[in-house]
Amino acid sequence: MQKELFEALVTVIATLRSEHGCPWDREQTHETLKSTLIEETYETLEAIDAGDPRKLKEELGDLLLNVMLQAQISAEEQAFDIYAVIETLTEKLIRRHPHVFGNVNADDAETVVKNWEEIKRQEAGYEDRESVLDGIPNALPALLRAQKIQGRAARVGFDWDERTDVIAKVDEELAEVKESLDKNDADAVEMELGDLLFAVVNLCRFMNAQAEEALRRANRKFMTRFKWMEAELERRGTTFEANDLASLDAIWEEAKLSIAS
């Protein structure tokens, strides 16, 4: 039954791209689908954050649609089809998990990652990488890319030994931000703020926290509390503009107490 469902999806996608299919689907290219791929990925993340299985099922379907369209376009170009995608993925998973499908021992996740990277370096397409930092996509969100850069550097020993060292680096970068503010140099301020963000991301990595997810959680928390403030101000018959910062800060503290983090 599962195989029949997949074959039906393949047929539907091919029909949509056919001469008598959907005008929108026929117009799509790899390039035009890039923006929807990003959009559908973030909508999938939102569904995960919401803890809504029904919504997650729907968003995973939208994400799969993009993959299927990309594969169908490539099939029409006689490059590869969805079955080649599946075959390549299956072979890669087996090859990169010798501790599961072979006779290699890996008792912890750290060993698995180390073996994974070593296997990748032996694969076609990776032989031209001269730096351990090569291959990290430029298009990644900046926080995520920073954490991946730092993780790669840490794998070869370029890392702090103690948490206190990482915190000291954050303090150092914050001090440099303050110095640049005193000089009133906009370019220097931006550069030092970047260094501070990079150091904070490094602290996240060192503590096994995901910087991107940490900031996403902070964003959600702020939005929830701010919306609570909006409702409270409306209930009181007033506005943000009619209150000074001290009053607003007091309401913010009420929001923190009223809403669980």
| Main sheet: strands, sense, barrel | none
Q: Name the CATH homologous superfamily of the largest domain.
A: MazG-like
CATH topology of the largest domain: Helix Hairpins
As a percent range, the share of helical residues equals over 70%
Quaternary organisation: single chain
The structure class reads mainly alpha
Task: Describe the protein's architecture and organization.
With 261 residues, the chain is mainly alpha-helical. It folds into 4 domains: 2-89, Helix Hairpins (Orthogonal Bundle), CATH 1.10.287.1080; 96-128, no CATH class; 135-209, Orthogonal Bundle (Helix Hairpins); 213-258. Helix content is 72%, strand content 0%. It has helices at residues 2-16, 23-27, 33-50, 53-76, 82-95, 98-101, 109-121, 142-155, 163-183, 186-206, 211-235, 245-258. The model has no long low-confidence stretch (mean pLDDT 93).
Write the layout of secondary structure elements.
Elements: H1 2-16, H2 23-27, H3 33-50, H4 53-76, H5 82-95, H6 98-101, H7 109-121, H8 142-155, H9 163-183, H10 186-206, H11 211-235, H12 245-258
Helix pairs in contact: 3-4, 8-10, 9-10, 11-12
Relevant terms:
single chain, 261 residues, mainly alpha, Helix Hairpins, 4 domains, 72% helix
In short:
The protein is mainly α.
